[in-house]
Amino acid sequence: MYELSKVRLYSVGPSGARYEDVIIDLSGAGDPVPDQQLQLGRPELRRPSPASILFLENGGGKSVLIKLIFSVMLPGRRHVVGTSNTKVLENFVGRHDVAHVVLEWMHTRTGRLLLTGKVSDWRGRSPQSGEENLVDLWYSLRPNDLVNIATLPFADDGHNLVASDFRSRLDDLADEDPVLDLEWADKHARWSAWLVKLGLDSELFRFQRAMNAGEGEAADAFTFATDEAFVDFLLKSVLPADELGDLAESIAVHARTLATRADLELESTFVTDAIAHLEPLDQQRSVTEQAVGEAAGAVSDLDGLVARLVARVDHENGLLEHREKHIEEVAEGVAAAESARNRAVGIHAALDHHTARLRRDAAHAEQQAAADAKGKAEHVVHSWAATPALLDLEKSSGLAAALREVVGQRQDAARVALSARDARSRELARALLSTADRADTEASQEESELAEVRRTTEDAEQTWQAAVQETAQANVLAAHLQERIAGVDAEVAQAVRASLITSPATLAEDSASLAESVRADMAAITETELLLETRRAEVDEAKAGLAQAREARIAAQSHYAGAQAELRRAEDATEVLAREPRLVELLDTADVLLEYDADTLLDQLAHAQSDIDAQRTEMKVGNAADEPALLVWQADPEALLSPHQEVIRIRDLLDSEGIACGTGWDYLADRTDETIRADLVRRLPHLAGGVLVNKPEHLARAREIIDTCDSHPTGTVFVATTRSFDVVVDAQIDLAIPATAGFVAPPNAGLFDHTAAQAEYARIAERYAIRKARLAELDALYSVDRALAARLAEWRRMFPPGTLGGLAESVATAEAAVQKAAADVDDHERALEHAIVARDGVQSALSSKCRALNTLKERSRQLAELASRGREAEGWRRDAVQARDQAVASEQRAARLLGMVNLLRRDIEDRQRRADGQRALAERIREEARDLPTGTTVDSRDPIPAEPVAVLRAVLGQAQRVYEKAEVGDDQLKELTQAENRAKDALQLWEKTPAEVRDTARVLLASTNGADGAARAAAIGHADNALRAAAHRHTRAAEETTRLDERLRQLPRPAVALSQPDQPRDVAHGEQLTAAAVTAAADAKAEHEERIAQLAVARKDAERARATVESFKTIIDMHRAARDDQFPAEATGVEPFPGDAGLAGDQYRDHQRAAVKKQKAAAEAQRGLDALAERLRQFAAETRFARLTVPIRTLISEVAISALAGYAAEWVRQLRPRLRSLSDDLAQVDRHRTIILERLTAIVDSALRKLRAAQRLSKLPEGLGEWTGLEFLHIGGTPVEGELLAHQLGGVLDDAVERYIATEKRDGLGVVQRAVRAAVPKGFKVTMLKPDAVLRAERVRISAVRDVFSGGQHLTAAIILYCTLAALRANDLGKTRRHHSGVLFLDNPIGRASATYLLDLQRGVAAALGVQLIYTTGLYEEEALAGFPLIVRLRNDADLRAGRKYLSVDERIMPYLEGLASPDDTGVVTPTRILIPERRRGDTY
């Protein structure tokens, strides 16, 4: 709410940095005050500077300034900034000093000013008398125009006022103008509390003190080793101390009660777990009894199964005939499948031969096409070879014609030569441009064809790659199949060497034979197993008998122990109850026999309770009668005794209607003469006890009001006026009742006499206290009698008359039963030993057979698997042959495609070279046309010359030479003759060339490729390449034709003739039909093999059916043998068994085991019962219950284990009431605990909200690049909720209770900090943004800040954290809407963080969170300080004098320096205020 506006320091400071009378002005440099009332003629109020610099050279007194300012806001010599020395402030106050430090604050919204100051001086004006003699006084006031920071009365006539005189002056000013609101404080705590009331958070200065422990070391105050340490610091800083104190107080008050919770929970746990053990024990007893009766049905189930097996044997014998017929039908199917397989193989061979012939024919056609292409390429090469001769002919002929024309027109030689040259030049230019256009056209055509060829090449490459991939896949598949085949062959060979089979051919037969041996051995083992089951059943039966005998013995022992325990319990309960003193008192005898006296005692207890209840009622009625008077006197100790209630009701009724009245007793109480009062009471009792109206004229209206009232008094109430007493007294009328007729009972003087009323109050209070004490005694006696009556009634209910004698007889009977049960156990143990010997013999024989069978089974399994893999290997062989054939075909196809791709690639290269050559030719020709003689103009409409360009070029050269000669002479004629001879020779040479070559040469020379020498050379190269490619293609075609001819000769002649529709149309169609034929042949072969397998299966099924019948017969014979041939041989009307022999054997064994299993179940149930009893015994003996004194726990340990089950139900019935009692006690304890937990939960929730608020408040303002809108501080953590949170906090509370009981120390903050950590079990992750020049959004763990951040970054982060903390405290104090969070002083932070972006970040965050920054510095860095709107430069003249040797002082500074006094080891500080213009501040941001 407040910002620091000014600081005044007066007569304070050490000798080297004295502040004689300095005002540091920070005002007017901020924004306008928003809620100010603008007044005419007064300037607009502006807030203090939001960020200020106090500049002073190092050693000039900056630290002294900070210490002095802090001494006002953080009182106490132990709180001096930057030191722990408590005597530092003494050095700042000289012997004759009266030191003043005054801070002026401005309200951020209203602009109202507040002064807070401190005055210090020495008692006796002597600092040597001890630090306790330095007197400090703090004060605050609201300044006005007369009393403000500049006009405070520090001195009078040039002499400083001592502290007491200064206080007197201010007190006088405050008396004259109370608006000053002057307050003084001489105690630290009182001053700190007053600062809080003023709206100044002095606690923030504690953090600033830590931040200013050293110059630039503010970051150390916000350095944390762990994230949890920061969270603890933040919570310590913002949690209200009163809440923490209340929490600690609650824990201390209820600690003893909560400490008993563990014992109650332990007993409750024991009772609960004991019930949980006893109930299953009682249930298991019922289960054991039921298990014995379930074994009888097993034998009947076994007989029914064997009867169904007999029916199945009859049914199988009838099915054998149908199986034989099925075998014949399957054999016919095998023959048909073999015929279909042979035909499919023949069709495949015919298709393969026909496709090979088609491939051969296609290869021949390809060879012929390659030969034709080769011939055409040779013709082009020969034609290009003839072009030089044609070119020579054209040149010589053209030259001769030109010379003839010149010579014939020699008279105009020069003109004619020039005209001829120009004409030739135009012809050549027209021919060149035409040739260039044709070259461009041919290049475009070549490029268009090139794109198509490239697409064809890409398609061919993809097809070739697919063929190569198919070849690789086929080869891999063939190799893989061959490897698997080799593996199977190796396994078969190994089996032969291991003598598992005779040879590879007999693998299937040997496997079947070995399987049959396994089945025979299994049948023998089954018979032995049945015998073993019989022996085991005998053993189990003996065990069951022994278990039953032992159970009977245990039951007898249990019953005996139970009877003894019951008798002891009854005797103990009777003895404990009979020793009660109250019962002895009621019977008036020392010998109480409850068996006979119980009913009498119950009657006497009832009468006693009735008497007590009557006395209690009487006392409560008396207390109720006295309570109204007591309540009146408690409210008003000077009150009179209240009159009758009816009188009060009439008075209140009249008073509510506006009639002033009072009771007669009130009127008498105003009379001071006791004699007159007594006389009036004697003579006019009806007036004294009635209601008196103040005005007589209101009497009639009072009557009407009372008459119209719904309720009337139940007694006589006299209503009169206050004058009635006076009238009667004056008339000397005596209305008193004559003594002979009666008398008026004297009223209580307390009705009208205050002294008597006080005495009456004392008597009533004493009487009330006596009754209350007596009532408490009666309540206690009543509770004791009621509890004793309940215990006596419960005893009688548990032990009716005759019960104790019956219990003694039960003990004797149970003892005899125990002896008899022990003899039965001995007999059953001997029978069990004989049964075990017989069972072990059979089991040993069975083990030997089983080991042999396992070996045989393993061999049979290996052979079966090997036979299966052998059958699979045949299919693998067929697949491998097909894969190899497919690989060969794919490889050939890939080779053809590769050759095609190579040809296409060369064609692409040739076409690209031709296109590039045509483009280059066009460019050269156009360049040549531009270089023709000046004046040559060409019209595109001119005809194109028929002569080749080369000829025109040569003719133009000749014309140019002719023109240069300008006249014809002998040389010219000689030249003409030579030209004609050369033309003749060239014509003869040209005519020797074949006519078709001459024609093609003329066409080639006239084309764009013949335009110049380079084009012709390129065309000749292209022709040579084309010839070589055609020759290569022809060679490969010939080789392919030869290979296919040879493969066709190798193929056998087909045995099957294909019809015309079935013959392939081409090679692709043939390959498709061949692949289909391969599949068909494989399918036919598989069908044939499947038919063979079906035949084998049918035969095996028949053999298996016979074996099944034999197996069923074996089981039947075995059962009959076990039953001594008493089982019937036929089963009529019985459904046959549906399963196989194995299932029959399994079910037979299962049914046979069922009876044994049921007997085992009974024995197991008994063992389970014994185990539960043993667990109950072990549970009761656990060490964690050692300190419990529960009677049932003792009984569980004493009663025999066998007898525990019999007592289970009874003990459960006894434990349940105790469990309810424990639940009630725990509920009461838990209520206290819940209340504390709720408070702790609320505080933890508030703490977590504060952490989230701290993160939210650290949101960065606009203008910070990527940081805009980000949260500088991020506190991550996942708090638990619900029951888990309650459990976590419960553990913290229990730990706090233990700590308090152990140490008697109250630590509310520690409890909350541990609770917050428990609420976030995964811990906190606290990160902050790393300040850098580009403000990247990079976060760093707060525990790693010291290691990662630079010094300036660390300091900036500490400042932002402080601003967040200040804003959070302001948020808790309800100041966030006012957007101000106090002031931050830092001593020389710029020395560590002078980078502009760091300072901008500090100012931006501080402005956003409402923190006023005040920095001190001794470094004048213009770039760093330019962003601060206000700089206050402090100069220390001692520093200036010392620096005079090194500074170049200008003229304006020198006079001041020369005017200084001589150095005397003291200094004077003077301020200079620099206000930066608003526009400059705006530029900085």
Layout of secondary structure:
Elements: E1 2-12, E2 19-25, E3 51-55, H1 62-73, E4 99-107, E5 113-122, E6 134-141, E7 155-156, E8 159-160, H2 163-176, E9 183-185, H3 188-198, H4 203-211, H5 227-238, H6 241-259, H7 261-292, H8 297-408, H9 413-497, H10 507-578, H11 581-587, H12 594-635, H13 645-656, E10 661-663, H14 664-669, H15 674-683, H16 685-688, E11 691-693, H17 699-708, E12 719-721, H18 723-731, H19 754-798, H20 803-930, H21 949-965, H22 970-991, H23 995-1006, H24 1013-1050, H25 1067-1122, H26 1141-1180, H27 1191-1198, H28 1204-1257, E13 1273-1276, H29 1282-1303, H30 1308-1319, E14 1325-1329, E15 1339-1341, H31 1345-1348, H32 1351-1372, E16 1383-1387, H33 1396-1409, E17 1412-1417, H34 1422-1425, E18 1430-1436, H35 1437-1442, H36 1454-1458, E19 1469-1475, H37 1478-1484
Parallel strand pairs: 3-17, 3-18, 11-12, 16-17
Antiparallel strand pairs: 1-2, 1-4, 4-5, 5-6, 6-9, 7-8, 10-11, 13-14, 14-15, 18-19
